[in-house]
Amino acid sequence: MNKEILRDLSYGVYVVSSKKEDRDVGCIVNSAMQITSSKTTIAISVNLDNYTNSAIKETGEFVLQVLPEEVDSNILKTFGFQSSREVDKFEEMDFERKDNYPILTCAIGYLHVRVTQIVEVGTHTLFIGEVLSMEKLKEDTPMTYAYYHQVKKGKSPKNAPTYQEEVKESNKKQYVCTICGYVHEGDLPEDFVCPICGVGRELFKEV
Ligand SMILES: Cc1cc2nc3c(=O)[nH]c(=O)nc-3n(C[C@H](O)[C@H](O)[C@H](O)COP(=O)(O)O)c2cc1C
């Protein structure tokens, strides 16, 4: 089986937020899709290890926020590579509260979803739900998963359903960012900063 074709499936990049013991939590997902139009139903796939998974199960609700291409890398780092188990992800974010959920200022729009079906699929939970409210907040270009990989040079962490192990293809030295997984090829200059999450070279390790 050649897994390469999996990289040709298309997705977007979103923040999914919910609540755990009344605290705002959330994570990045690419796995979101519209299932039906009448009623409008949406599905997302969330890893069992993600704190957001248990939050959605607790509240029976989630909010899907559409991110723009030019999203601040701090949002990708915080929501995609850290856990609400350890950090308050919304603490330093700009947001406005809608339907009692924090909507990031950069979000193009959001969908507030009530979960109607939960399907456990091995490592991930498929949450299917009915849209309670939705709003487009601004005109901007939504980020696709292809743009995230090709232009932002972003990586998928192990918990993303689309994760694939990196294969080293050249003999050049490679350094991986221990925060976001970005791989840099060639020597690291003194003033090097990660183009995805902005940390310095001290947080890179040789592959
Ligand atoms: C581009 C990108 C796409 C991701 N897609 C998913 C996804 O579809 N489902 C998922 O469970 N995790 C996905 N992740 C991983 C989670 O965002 C990540 O594990 C996060 O740290 C979980 O945070 P939490 O523990 O606060 O829920 C993705 C991460 C990135 C950067």
Can you offer a commentary on this structure?
This protein has 207 residues and is mostly beta strands. It is globular. The protein folds into 2 domains: 9-148, Electron Transport, Fmn-binding Protein, Chain A (Pnp Oxidase, Chain A, Roll), CATH 2.30.110.10; 166-207, Rubrerythrin, domain 2, CATH 2.20.28.10. Strands 2-1-5-8-9-4-3 form a 7-stranded antiparallel beta sheet. A 3-stranded antiparallel beta sheet has the order 11-10-12, with no helix packed on it. Helices cover 12% and strands 37% of the residues. The two termini are 26 Å apart. It has 3 helices and 12 strands, in the order E-E-E-E-H-E-H-E-E-E-E-H-E-E-E. Flavin mononucleotide is lined by residues 13, 25, 27-31, 45-47, 50-52, 76, 80-85, 148, 154, 156-157, 159-161.
H and E order: EEEEHEHEEEEHEEE
How much of the sequence is in beta strands?
Answer: 35-45%
- Overall, the morphology is globular
Question: Can you name the CATH architecture of the largest domain?
Answer: Roll
Instruction: Name the bound molecules.
Output: flavin mononucleotide
Counting DSSP H or I runs of 4 or more residues, the number of helices is 3
Order of strands, main sheet, comes to: 2-1-5-8-9-4-3
Tally of individual domains: 2
SS-derived structural category: mainly beta
Going by CATH, what is the homologous superfamily of the largest domain? Electron Transport, Fmn-binding Protein, Chain A
What CATH calls the topology of the largest domain is Pnp Oxidase, Chain A
Report, as a whole number of angstroms, the end-to-end distance. 26 Å
What's the Cα radius of gyration?
Answer: 17 Å
Mean model confidence by pLDDT = 92
Helix content: 10-25%
